[in-house]
Amino acid sequence: MSVDKAFREMVRNEIEAQLKPLRDLVSRLEAGTADLDRLRTVAEQLAPLAGAVGPLFGVSGGSRGGGAAPARRGPGRPARAAPAPVAASGGKKRGRKPSSEGGARECAIKGCGKPSRTKGYCAAHYQKLRMLEKTNRRPNNWVDYAEPNSVEDIKLPRGRAAAKALAEAKNAG
After folding, report:
1. How is residue 55 annotated by DSSP?
2. Neighbouring C-alpha atoms within 13 Å toward the C-beta of 166
3. Residue 156 has pLDDT above 60, yes or no
């Protein structure tokens, strides 16, 4: 026997040893598939009986795939609702309704005109209100839930003047 033949025989034996568990698994899967086929035929034979007797026991007799009744859900989140019909004019509108439709009213700052978001102010003026509260510089007329276009806007200082104003507010408070 030549070295080449011996090497081939050794490789063949190693491959056979490695493939044996795989072959056993495939044969078991084939046997399981046959069992599933037999179970499926029995279920198909019993389907008419289950459809007739099922309602007596509170079980719907729907067939698989085209059943009218959905599968029963366990506890937890409810089933997702059907999506709302989309308007033909271009889809879902985002944001708030205009105040003419009973939605958001205008910002409390005079001349702003943007819809109010929080405490009667638009997003930009609400951020300004938060900053003024944080630095103890909130004016008395900047009240929560003020009427639309009723509050005079203030111009905040910038640069050195802002630093000086903050220092004064800190010393005063």
Report:
1. G
2. 12
3. yes
C-alpha to C-alpha distances, 32 to 45, 51, 129, nearest whole angstrom: 20, 28, 71
pTM over 0.90: no
pLDDT at position 32: 79
125 alpha carbon, distance to own chain's centre? 30
Give the bridge partners for 109, in sequence order: 151
One-letter identity of residue 166: L
Query: Tokens at residue 82, please?
Result: 């059907």
Residue-wise DSSP of 5-68: HHHHHHHHHHHHHHHHHHHHHHHHHHHHHHHHHHHHHHHHHHHHHHHHHGGGGT---PPTTT-S
Residue-averaged pLDDT of the chain: 79
Question: Rounded to whole angstroms, how far apart are CA atoms 59 and 125?
Answer: 60
Cα separation, 67 vs 146, in Å, equals 57
What integer is the mean pLDDT of 107-122?
91
Phi, psi of 109 (to 5 degrees): -75, 135
Per the rule left: phi > 0, alpha: psi between -120 and 50, beta: everything else, 67 is beta
Give the span between the Cα atoms of 145 and 126, in whole angstroms: 11
Residue 23 backbone dihedrals phi, psi, to 5 degrees: -65, -40
